[in-house]
Amino acid sequence: MGAAKNIWALANAEDAANDAEQIPYSSFVVDTSLPLPLMIPRIIELCKDLFKNWGELDDSLFSVERVSGGITNLLLKVSVKEDTNKEVSVTVRLYGPNTEYVINREREILAIKYLSAAGFGAKLLGGFGNGMVQSFINARTLEPSDMREQKIAAQIARELGKFHKVDIPGSKEPQLWVDILKFYEKASTLTFEEPDKQKLFETISFEELHTEIIELREFTGLLNAPVVFAHNDLLSGNFMLNDEEEKLYLIDFEYGSYNYRGFDIGNHFNEYAGYDCDYSLYPSKEEQYHFIKHYLQPDKPDEVSIAEVESVFVETDAYKLASHLYWAIWAIIQARMSPIEFEYLGYFFLRYNEYKKQKPLTFSLVTSHLSASM
């Protein structure tokens, strides 16, 4: 885990240069394959090592529960009774094994500090060999069906508009095609130990896939889409809502990078379908317009011109295709590398087939829009 330590050392070196608070780091590694009862003592030991004021507390003062587990990470809530009247909770995020093949952890950790300072997500409290500790957010995780409710959709749009205005130091080059081609190079060289998976894998035409990547890269380039710091993974599980306070939180920035605005929004619309990829749930044009208006002009959404809304609508429709390619190829790598029980190869085909279904419709829409704009 030397690489992880170096990343945190780099983050702290930057903080020291700016007289900012240092982020504690522990070399502890937690075995994510353990059942929770066996993992709990290790989690408590980790927290005591990271936070010295907890070091002498009895283990009985700690409680650990699973918050959620997506198809990449495991989240745990750790609560500590610091004294008789005060209980403190933190979130321990354990990275999924082999996620370094699809996630740039250095990029993530450096971005989190600036995003946290801008009011996004949980505060970064500490790091360890295969994860991080953040402040606990008292809110519920959204479901895909929540995202299409008009009030929540408007909240998400407003929050995303603010998120896209955050300046993160470093290269501002969009990473979409860099990442997709990196995924492609890795995915195309894999082999599977399980005969059934290998047989299914061999039905994928990587030559065709590469042709589609290059064609779509050139086609979307015609739109000159704005480049912003994008979240890149705006599924329902990365939004939390405190219903009582009506406060929405955007969380988990592990895929974040500078990228095309249309990709972030188009990817979000694709996520209305959920992990089951039920694309009958993709937002209607009216629902997309509602979102785009609140994204562009949160205070006066009805004053946004139809021409401006339509332009973002077309941009988003083009990049939703890139979203399908991105996560389809990502799924091939996960099928080989991830120990999490999920039909990753099946997910590849669901995303890629939807890409092929939507491609002629989107190409026609974008071509018509570009012709009318000349």
UniProtKB/TrEMBL annotation:
InterPro entries: Kinase-like_dom_sf (IPR011009). GO terms for cellular component: cytoplasm. One of its GO terms (biological process) is phosphatidylethanolamine biosynthetic process. Coiled coil: none annotated. Its EC number is 2.7.1.82. Pathway: Phospholipid metabolism; phosphatidylethanolamine biosynthesis; phosphatidylethanolamine from ethanolamine: step 1/3. Keywords: Kinase, Transferase. GO terms for molecular function: ethanolamine kinase activity. Belongs to the choline/ethanolamine kinase family. This is ethanolamine kinase. It comes from Arabidopsis suecica.
